[in-house]
């Protein structure tokens, strides 16, 4: 958040001392290194996670409609209305780009072209859940 890699690394390492099996600080430290293009350091943290059995559970979002909880995980391709959701986001993305919106892809920490970075943002669990809710409220775009 503060773009201070040294401070973030120091804080993460202190948190590791408190709970070395919590995936949160490991993931944050990996992201800190990745955002600074310190790919070898990010890989070292991932290796430490693997060797010590620390698992990073994917984040999820959910929407309750008509007493049914619908759960979404980032990049989930198994949810039944997935294709409809994807098409809806494509329509929205085209419309908002035409009025000047540019997605902030600076926190997509993979080496990828701009289009792939934007696609990764579209597949966050929050966006999938929101699109599902909008589709079920019969909004049109």
TrEMBL record:
Q: Which residues form the DYW domain?
A: 100-137
Q: Which residues cross the membrane?
A: none
Question: Pfam families under this entry?
Answer: DYW_deaminase (PF14432), E_motif (PF20431)
- What molecular function does GO assign, one term? zinc ion binding
Among InterPro entries, the record links this protein to: DYW_dom (IPR032867), E_motif (IPR046848), PPR_At4g14850-like_plant (IPR046960)
* BP GO annotations: RNA modification
Q: Which family does it belong to?
A: Belongs to the PPR family. PCMP-H subfamily.
The protein in question is named Pentatricopeptide repeat-containing At3g24000, mitochondrial
């Amino acid at each position: 958040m503060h773009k201070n890699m040294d401070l973030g690394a120091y804080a993460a390492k202190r948190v590791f001392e408190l709970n070395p099996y919590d995936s949160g600080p490991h993931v944050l430290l990996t992201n800190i290194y990745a955002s600074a293009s310190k790919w070898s350091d990010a890989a070292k943290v991932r290796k430490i996670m693997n060797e010590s059995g620390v698992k990073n559970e994917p984040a999820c979002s959910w929407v309750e409609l008509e007493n049914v909880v619908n759960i979404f995980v980032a990049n989930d391709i198994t949810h039944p209305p997935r294709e409809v959701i994807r098409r809806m986001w494509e329509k929205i993305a085209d419309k908002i780009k035409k009025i000047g919106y540019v997605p902030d892809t600076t926190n997509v920490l993979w080496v990828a072209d701009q289009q792939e970075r934007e696609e990764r943002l579209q597949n966050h669990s929050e966006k999938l859940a929101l699109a599902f809710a909008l589709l079920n409220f019969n909004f049109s775009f």
